[in-house]
Amino acid sequence: DGMDVLELLNKEEVGYTPSGQDYLIRCLNPEHDDSNPSLRVDKVTGVMHCFSCGFRGNVFAHFDAPGISPKELKRKRVKEKIEERRVENVGLQIPEASLRFVGSFKNISADTLKKYGAFTYHEKGYAGRLLFPVRDVTGKINAFLGRAMEPTTIPKYMIYPRGARMPYFPPLPDIVEGTIVLVEGIFDALNLIDKGLENAVCCFGTNNVDIYKLSLLKVLGVKGVHILFDGDDAGRRGAKTTSLLCEELDLATNIIPIQNNIDPGDLPKERVGELRKYLYG
Hints:
TOPRIM_DnaG/twinkle, 5-stranded antiparallel beta sheet, Dna Topoisomerase Vi A Subunit, Chain: A, domain 2, single chain
């Protein structure tokens, strides 16, 4: 069967960044060491052009893969829209053939992973990933987030279905002294929860922070937000923006400093304990 450009990139494990009408990927020219992705691939046609070395062609031809006709693509998009509406109404279901994950992963205990519903599913597109149901406050599953279990697998994270609205995780957080600790990624939250900071909440990236989602936290009884984003430039910028949004909602806020290029998901138990003591005594 034919596949669209995104399905092909995922099948071939090619990392990508959406950029307008294109996907931006590392150049497929073997003679071009493209450390800063510069090959643009049209999202619909698969036509590709590297603006750095001039390499061009079609991604379907490059991987000797069957493409999809415009008519098939339109039909596919209609089906996806219908599925999106169904998911909005009743939510997703964990696949019957899935397997509950019973081990530890990335220094997070088996008990914590079990508590948050970690599972594996060996069908195409899901294999090789540790999957989590992402629920809203009603318990409905909005999406699945899949984390690659091998370091060489790209992209590291995938969201099913693509474009799904991502509520904060967990949707009904533990609240300590009226506050939560807001982090970027699901494994940041899981690591902190696992190590004793049980009020960690993941926003799924700095771009997923907005007034509406923060106001939902306020409705749940949150009065203050400790912001612990990644120790890189993007994390620091996102923390400042999030702090301003919290202030608009009259949520007490502070930005917790973290070392350069350190993620909360990397903090060992001792450091998490120190952080808890720093915040709550």
